[in-house]
Amino acid sequence: MTEHSNNIFLSDGKMADDRKTNNNFHKTTDLFGETKIVFKQGKRKKANTLFEYDDFIDKFEDKKTTDDCYTPKNVYEIILDYLKSKGKINGFEEIIRPFFPNNDYKEVEYKKGSIVIDNPPFSIFSEIVRFYTKKEIPFFLFAPHMTVFNHKVKEANIIVVGANIIYENGAKVPTSFVSNLFGDIRVFSDFNLYQKLEALNKSSVSLPKYEYPQEVLTVSDLTYMLQKGIEFEVRKTDSIYVSKIDDQKKYGKTIFGGGLLINKDKAKEKAKAKEKAKAKENKIVFKLSKREDELLDKIKEGWEKNKRKRD
């Protein structure tokens, strides 16, 4: 245990002697991967002291909410490697992980030269992004994928990934990221990061989808049309049963459940029936208003003005 100013650094996983006192704490990771727990002694009442991040979260079992999703080590390491490859954490002396149960992230001491890389509670995600942006604290945060735009902080960068991450509590959550490390880019997608995170899930093998010629009628075709209220029939004289078509032989595949080869006229009827079924899908098409078209014109004018300046 090494004392430094008013903070106590624990790098060996042992608990401080005053186990029953209330301390403010956070987890830090240096650029060499060494993990430390920082206890800030003060008047504010915070969570009790803890052994280590992983030991502490073991106390919180059987939780499946997105606020209780503790990050697996292999996931966190992928994020660190990703940021290193992008040159985004070079020069930082300390990586801070302030999000523990019952810990107030606002009370953590964010020193110059430190960066926050962590998985925050999603229920107050917008508040957290606004806080770090206002304080100009460098950050890279795990974010809820489907609502990743909702923080509405235009200064932040949105990294759309959508990988299904299985967290320590067993919850499987589609995840993207929000940061302030990527300059004037508002949003971008990263397929490389998506692949690396998805590769951790054994069940995430991407299976091919099969598309058959219109002359092949399958149970799936009939089910799709039926569920949209479209009935379809084929006479015995217009069809012949097949277990596979010749083009499948090179792949070693068959038609699951078998299918029917139907004549050309029936194939055309089938195509029209499927189009009718598709038209009945429950979807609403939204259109831009005149006001929004004018906003787009202003964006275009700004882009052209900036381009002339650069030229």
Name the strands of the widest sheet in spatial order: 1-2-4-3-5-6-7-9-8-10
**What is the structural class?**
alpha+beta
Low-pLDDT segments: 1-23, 39-52, 59-65
Distance between the termini: 58 Å
Concise synopsis of the structure shown:
With 311 residues, the protein is of the alpha+beta class.
Structure description:
- 27% of the residues lie in helices and 21% in strands.
- It has 311 residues and is of the alpha+beta class.
- It has 2 domains: 2-204, no CATH class; 208-311, no CATH class.
- The strands form 2 sheets. It has a 10-stranded mixed sheet with strand order 1-2-4-3-5-6-7-9-8-10, sandwiched between helices. A 3-stranded antiparallel sheet has the order 11-13-12.
- Helix 5 (219-227) packs parallel to helix 6 (264-279).
- It is elongated, with a radius of gyration of 27 Å.
- The termini are far apart.
- The model is unreliable at 1-23, 39-52 and 59-65 (pLDDT under 50).
What are the SSEs and their pairings?
Layout lengths: L1 E3 L2 E4 L13 E6 L5 E6 L12 H5 L15 H13 L8 E4 L16 E5 L6 H11 L3 E6 L12 E10 L5 E8 L7 E3 L1 H8 L17 E2 L1 H9 L11 E4 L16 E4 L1 H16 L10 H21 L1
Parallel strand pairs: 5-6, 6-7, 8-10
Antiparallel strand pairs: 1-2, 2-4, 3-4, 3-5, 7-9, 8-9, 11-13, 12-13
Helix pairs in contact: 5-6
